[in-house]
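FIELD: query
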Amino acid sequence: MQSKLPNVGTTIFTVMSKLAAEVGALNLSQGFPSFAADPALIELVAQAMRDGHNQYAPMPGVASLREAIALKTNTLYGSHYHPDHEVTITSGATEALFAAITAVVQPGDEVLVFEPAYDSYVPAIELAGGHPIYVSLAPPDYGIDWDQVRLLVTPRTRLVVVNTPHNPTGRVWTGEDMHELAALAEAHNLLVVADEVYEHIRFDGRTHHSLASYPVLRERTFVIGSFGKTFHITGWKIGYCLAPPALTVEFRKVHQFLTFSVSTPMQHALATYLTQPDRYTTLPNFYQQKRDLFLSALAGSRFTFLPTEGTFFQNVSYAGLTDEPDHELAVRLTRDIGVASIPVSVFYQQRTDYHILRFCFAKDDTMLLEAGQRLNDWSLRV
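FIELD: result
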């Protein structure tokens, strides 16, 4: 049988998490918190179940949750989305990304992808018959050369995939980036998919520039969010998509046959939980403390790094310590010192290796300090 995704195997996240479990390593590879969700949120789910919310939810999502998301978006970004016609609840952000991409990409279309790129974008593009066109970003700051981007646009370009705050680099797009993107999209009539799942996790006073805030972009963009990252509930797999009515119609055509509906009691619980904004507005400080704690443990090491601007990932360069390929070193450090990471080369099409590892700091403080100490000690022995 001929594979439709011949270049896709088991994800690096699965591989490294499996290895970490096998050897008993501290798992700073896969991006999930090691701490529990708010007990109040758990109780809201239990209450929703007791109240009888246990059957299929409406295909677009529970109305009260769609209304809560619309209110939150309008409050934070000054953009109103109609709960009935422009907000859809999805089975996590991954489903939303797949539905958005496959809803609008036709065979032969070109899609701009900024790499290093999260691994779910390109398979969705290819399954739709599209062709990914890569904009490669380089350390240390992973800044965007918009002149290069403009050169890559052709009459076949249909879509741009944006991720801010950006996984795996931790970069937060600037207002200037958004204006450049808006001008590009308007000039070439491009659609946009905006992966904004880390919208509430950014540091040092940086602003999240949601594409919903820019009128030119709002009218042509699928804005995708996730409660998993925001509320430490990645296993719930609940996300959402904001899009203008015409795009939402096409999005829901795919969504209804991909997932149809999402866990009903959890939607009711989240709708109530969102009524207290401090439950997400306090996240920057919460995660900045964890970032800084992890970096403090690496302060005396021979690694080099720039503090991440957003997400709960920190990239660390080992250039100058060893010429070992990042994939091999990630495996070796998991086995030898018991700290698992992700090699950043896997996020590049050509496996470009800048000798950088990605660590997740959404972990308990004791784990972060222990992992940092082990890495620090290793770097001094090399």
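FIELD: remark
Residues 39-279 form a domain with the Aspartate Aminotransferase; domain 2 fold (CATH 3.40.640.10).
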